[in-house]
Amino acid sequence: MNLDASLDVRTEQTAAPRSLLRKVLKQAGTILLIFVLACGVFQLVTHYVLQSVQIVGASMSPTLHDSGRYVLNRWIYHVREPQPTDIVVLRDPAEDCYAVKRIIAKGGDTVQVKNGHLFVNGKLLNEPYLPPDTPTYPGAKVGEQLWVCGVNQYFVLGDNRNNSADSRVYGTVSRQSILGMVMP
Prior knowledge:
- By secondary structure, the chain is an alpha+beta fold.
- The chain has one domain: Ribbon (Umud Fragment, subunit A).
- 29% of the residues lie in helices and 28% in strands.
- Strands 1-2-11-3-4-9-10 form a seven-stranded antiparallel sheet.
- A hairpin with a 6-residue loop joins β3 (87-91) and β4 (98-105).
- It starts with a helix and ends with a strand.
């Protein structure tokens, strides 16, 4: 028997399992890399672009419903500034939680609540998103209130005016407190 021939057969027999092991490890590494990348993209999208939010409470009724699920666009305010009528998620300044409110006024605007009516810059605010003749009253024990929005400040209200803790309670909110716009 030729010694060289038997060595070649043994080398081929041990090389086949090693080659198979390398292929399996390479595929496992590829799958792990895809999984890590997918998790990273998911985290980026849900923290900086779009996020699912669930409404808790009735402060935005009738526009948004208690327990309803909506999409929060976290990217939009990197492209443009928040605007009146936008529905936003913000860090509630009165409590350590998040709230959903509608922007009524922006920096430089004045807001007045008087006799159940809402005025922005001296003009009665048209609010087509509310049922007709929905009153807006100032905080408790006050006949009328006036606020001035400073630079990068916003005045926010819940659409359910009789059941909402909002800027009538805690004043204007800063731009940094606004996380994004809710897409109903």
